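Quick one - inputs below.
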Amino acid sequence: MNRRTSWGQWRGIVVLTATWVLLWGSLSPGVVLTGLLVALGVLWLFPLPDISRVATVRLWPLCVLVTRFATDLFVASFQVAWLAVRPGPTPRGGVVGVRLTSPSVAFEVATAELASLIPGSVVVEIRVQEQMLYLHVLDLAGSGGPDGVRASVLALERRILRAFAAKEGETA
Amino acid sequence: MLVAHIVAAASAPALVSRLGRRAFWVLALAPASAVVYALVHTGDVLGGTGPVQVVEWVPALGLQLAFRLDALSWLMLLAVGGVGALVLLYCSAYFSRNAHGLGRFAGVLTAFAGTMVGLVTADDLLLLFVFWELTTVFSYLLIGHYADRKQSRRAAMQAIVLTTAGGLTMLVGLVVLGMSGTWRLSELVADPPRGPAVTVAVVCLLVGAATKSALIPFHFWLPAAMAAPTPVSAYLHAAAMVKAGVYLVARFAPGFADVPAWQVMILALGGGTLLVGAYRALRQNDLKLLLAFGTVSQLGFLVLLLGFGTRAAALAGLALLGAHAMCKAALFLAVGVIDSAAGTRDLRRLTGLARALPGTAVASVLAVASMAGLPPTAGFVAKEAALAAVLPDAGHAPPTGVLAAGGGAVGWMVLVVVVLGSALTVAYGLRFLWGAFANRGPVSPAGAEPPSGRGPDPEDAPQLIDPAEVRRQPVLLTWPPLVLALLGLAVAATGALGESVLGLHADGLPGEPGHLALWSGLTPALGLTVVAVALGVAVFWWRDAVERTQERFRTPSADGLYRRTMRALDDLAADVTAFTQRGSLPVYLGVVLVVLAVGPGLFLGIRLLSGGPEGSAPIALVPWDRPAQVAAVAVVVASAVLAARARRRLKAVILVGVAGYGNAVLFLLHGAPDLALTQILAETLTLVIMVLVLRRLPPYFSDRPLAADRWGRLAVGALTGVVMMGVAVVAPSARVFRPVAADFPEEAVSFGGGHNIVNVTLVDIRAWDTVGEISVLLVAATGVASLVFLRVRSGEVLRLPRGQRTHATVRDGDPAAGEVREGAVGQGATGALSAGRTLTPHRRSVLLEVITRTVFHAMIVFAVFLLFTGHDRPGGGFAAGLVVGIALAVRYLAGGRYELGEAAPVHPGLLLGTGLFLSAGVGLLALLFGGEVLQSWILDFEVPVLGHVHLVTSLFFDVGVMLVVIGLALDVLRTLGAELDRHADEEGETMAPGSTVGMAGATGEKRGDGVVDQGVRP
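Output:
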């Protein structure tokens, strides 16, 4: 049995069982056992290709990633809210293309997701082949211009890679 | 006896298919049994103690199957049964061996005979009506027997339209009579009510009788109905059905003959029909039509006599009824023989048949003699009695009413009409005989002048039939008319017996008794008969002159009026349909809403202003329970208003969705998490589906937006909203009884074994409702599917080629498969989903695919959780099904239609059917174990490792509900999503899931509406 496939399967089972336990809100043996059964059943009934490339989880970089993301979220929320209510002309928005460093789809998507979740910027398109990410930014000037946006997105990607990628600068 | 008819009718098709034409011999036993029954009970009837049979039918409504045999019924039974049996025998020879639809015909004819038997013996007003309408239906089938002929169909339609209209009118009359006293016919006639209502009822009754018995102005359906096979004409239109109206008149005459409206109508209808029918009969060239108009005329005569209101007239009428049944049926059957033998019924083409068909000729002569009232036939006896009865100075006239008015002038008019009618009867009788049997010289193409010198003009005289070519007919065809004609002779000799039986019925009327005798001396009546016969012969003698005169004075025909009326009706219907059914959904919806707002709204407003119903609690309003509700309501109101003003379809849909989510928040704030959960899920799925549909619609509602339109929509919406709000305020205060739901919390636990009342209500307390609802769901899903899947009824499951399926790799655990797929895709996209590659790269959204891949399994687990937890906490099968539906929708949106096929490789019909089977089937299972349907059991047991298990059998019911909902979602996605994609692909359009709109629908629900706007803004 291929190691990666089995890993993917196992991870799926663990995640789904955990979901189940959280839903029921109890860690009794009955719940865990039924959770396992449900997870197996769901995976067997609805097979999907395995895409996760998460090789490892590094605790400290993960903390950095989460903290920074929460801060960005918090700050950006107020920025956008201010933009909405402040007097004066509507800020100029624009689409910025960013070339990502990792060719892995999983990390590209993760980067895109997190970038989208931060208010003020939305991913318009991903071109996986070209590793290009296109973002629409609400206040281009306030975000430091196209270059500022690129820099912050690339920084975000770097934090993700540090937290999850197999080794620093991993490309697959 | 009725049962015998029903059995015979039901088995007729089988008999016919086995015995062929001979089956009619067996079937004839049924009407024959009616004759035997009547004859056996002759003694009882004479003694006035005819059998009475009452079976309770619908006791709650006072409906009874009441039958009674008295003198009138006895006579009718003999006529109906006797003629019926002979006609059925006749049928066995009339139809060819391989005639089409014979089984159906035999069944319907026998059933009709049975219905007539029921009609004449029924003693309950409503039962009478039931049989009355049955004769209408059966006659429709019989007249339209040759369904492939337009003429036949039209005649049948005309007959049923007229007789049904009359029948309904009659029903009104019957109900009025029944409400004013008793539903029992015999009691009603014995003790008739009076009053304006009764007058109306009587008029209604007579209208019914007039349509059935083809009296003017409804007479025209009878000649048209001659399109039917001859046995049908003989039976229905001579002996049976048309006599139903006459029977009705005779039946009610003892009770209501002194009502002025009755007298006026009887005289007008009867006298008028007598003359018009006879007059028209003189003009006909088709033997059958001649007889048909003759029948119309005679029916008028019968109604006149039976409704006249004196004993003598009624006696004469009954005698004439019997005589006419015999002679007219005989004549019709004779026409059938002629038609079959010579191949035509056109009297201008017939010649020399007297020698070719001697038996038929004799029968016809006798029958005509009886019809015209020549001695020594039954018709003569009856007509003598009739003339004697209507002689104004004979002392028979009733002392009151219209007949006494005008110093007896009306009475004299009646006499004149009768004599004139008799004369015309003689004339058309002779015409019939002459036309059918007389010699018209040698058959020559030159059209030599007929010996009588009074034949039709040579130029329009069709080719004569060579008598030598006339085939001899089988005995079964020739002897029924002969038997009937001879019976007419025989009955004439038994005047005394007839008088004693028929007199029993006539006794219910005032005036001196009449007499039935072959010879009652040199009376004025005999003189009048001589006058009538002489007149008739004279008319016949100068028939050419008469025909020419008739040609000159074309009378307006009631038939034409009927046709114009029907055409106008059709036009009106088309106009009304075109006006109301415009095919515009906004108009439909607007009408529905406005009616709702105006109807109940007006009522509501009045109620509110007048202070509400008596005894109801005063309405107390609080602005809100929690301030948060205000915010939710504000969102809902704002989005509703904006939605009503929206020009873009997508905008409107999204706004309506927002309003829905706002409602969910309201539910939540009211402490109904279950409802809120379901509302959110349903709203989400609806939004996805709406967006899927919108892909194929133009972006704007209208290309020419009018401001008035917006305001109109807004007004309708606001009005409806206000009214519904009012209803919501008023409805709870209108409750008088203790709410049934008060016990639900306790019952839910003790019987349903769950703490979630909503769910227990759905799957246990009101499980039947749920079964009904999911059945509706199933029907709706099937309906949508069959509307969209135009190529196949429900389409196939779209799958990837076998080698590319995901499970293949999972099952095999093939290490290379994943790599190969990634490599094969090559264009930069890994397969996050099974069928992502089926989409062209520019349609794909990697983002969506990856997210879908991540959340799909979790959603399914969540659904399973909802299913299991539903009994005690928010959730349940419905919510679980919705979650799975949304999960499938997400996969479809991300991966296209093949992805949907891979995600759920089953046919939705299978899911729907299994779900319904589980829900209802599990309910039935309870029956096996001695419980009630859908009863649930609560199982509590300890499992070593798992701990305490609490299982309620209604869980299976819930699983069924879930499957149905999933099936519905899948069906909708497949039809409105996948199938529409295919349509679009075929049309070369590029709109598809993964494109902006489809994606917006999916992402909008996750992140809020800002994204949607960004996504779709051009």
